[in-house]
Amino acid sequence: MRRERIFRDRANFFEEDDQSLRCRFRLPRHCLVELCDALEPELTRQTNSCPLGGGGSHDSFILQNSSVGMRLAQGAAGDAWLIGDKGYAVATWLMTPLFTPETQQEREYNDCHVRTRAVVERAIGRLKVRWLCLDTAGGTLLYKPDKVCKITMACCALHNIAERHGVPLPEGLALPPPADMPVDPPIGAEANRPGLALRRQLIARF
Q1: pLDDT in tens, 160-179
Q2: What contacts 92, CB < 8 A, 6 or more positions away?
Q3: For the chain, which residues make up each domain, given as ranges?
Q4: Which one of 9, 87, 130, 188 is CB 3.0 to 4.6 Å from 182, fit for a cystine?
């Protein structure tokens, strides 16, 4: 079994000598300084926070009650939709699959939904393979939420740079399988009548 990795706060690594920095990061000091300067605008950007129970609350509840969810409910997405799994409540801005598709059109809608969502799942999977600290297999980030946000943003920025330059993923690590869909719908999942009506209109196109 893989031993759980524990991440702790460390002293400022720029206080280390040049040889220690090169051994630890495989980069000279001036490259590290330039890299940190380039990433600073991304790491210090205003991010959305939602003090609504943290990890103990359902993702759907967090989304709907966050500032992001409120802006989307006010029409910020325009004519586009977010794609959510069965654990999310359908809304005019969030399309979810049907629990029990009965007609051919409903089955085709679900199939299209799954294929579209798989693109996002694969992208997130590649990110987690490159940075194991973002996956439960690599341990848990034992920091305050604000710091975890900065770590995640740094990983995303570095991952995008690596993807653009064709840096391969670490060898011997397989992409994680898509998360299983919950069996039971969240509370209020079918209560949004405008969202249900819009989903029926989309299904009618198939």
Answers
A1: 988 888 888 887 666 655 55
A2: 73, 192, 194, 195, 198
A3: 53-97+182-206, 121-180
A4: 87
